[in-house]
Amino acid sequence: MFEKYRVTLDKKLDLDKFDPADKPFAGESKSDDRARMDELSVLLDDLQNRLHASAKHRVLLVLQGMDTSGKDGTIRAVFQTVNPLGVRVANFKAPTPTELAHDFLWRVHRQAPAAGELVIFNRSHYEDVLITRVHDWIDADECKRRIEHINHFEKLLADSDTLILKCFLHISKDAQRERLQERVDDPQKHWKFDPTDLKERAFWPEYQKAYASALSATSTEWAPWYIVPSDSKRHRNLMVAELLVAALSRLGLDFPPPKPELEGLKIE
């Protein structure tokens, strides 16, 4: 099931061939989906505890997508029952003057997971080959150089026992319109509405082209991209959880061995 949504390295990617309304892991009913999400939450909690306790592997989950694709919502839903110990979210907004004074990966490498840590990138280093390319802040040659640096950077992380999982939250333009309209219509969601979102929405075709190019050039063996249909919030969350649990399960995580010196110890 996962392979259908995995991006192939250096193969021309047409995002229009992936239906944002797909529900690949849907059960027969909403209650089935909720029950499966509960099961995944239990599994993820156990796997994360083992990851943190063993302090051997590192895990990086990258979430990218158009505005309103649900990066925040995915984090809330997938990690709602996970112990916050050993889990961290790194948000990447417009770079500060200090960050701009360094190479584009400087601020990103500082947020990479430590041993035993699971880090979620809410947006990521890919912003530097997406919005910058769409608005012609960098040319094609610079974009190509950055893509090469990204692949080398992720290979460095992978060679340091970092599991990298990258999810493109794929929504339709209609779904984005509906979600933006919800923010406008609900006064309690006005804080979420940013007028610049409308300006970026006008560049929809350019963003789709930039995403397709970046994803196909960086979906490596050590850091694959998966296209996650995201018109349905519930099924988006379910697929990300399924991907993460499957990837963590392959690590063979376990708790450290018992300490012989503690056998028979009585606490007074």
Automatic annotation (TrEMBL):
A Pfam family of this chain: PPK2
Residues in Polyphosphate kinase-2-related domain copies: 29-248
One example of a Gene Ontology biological process annotation: polyphosphate metabolic process
Record keywords: Kinase, Transferase
Molecular function via GO: polyphosphate kinase activity
PANTHER family in alphabetical order: POLYPHOSPHATE:AMP PHOSPHOTRANSFERASE, POLYPHOSPHATE:AMP PHOSPHOTRANSFERASE-RELATED
Family (UniProt): Belongs to the polyphosphate kinase 2 (PPK2) family. Class I subfamily.
Protein known as: Polyphosphate kinase
Species of provenance: Pandoraea terrae
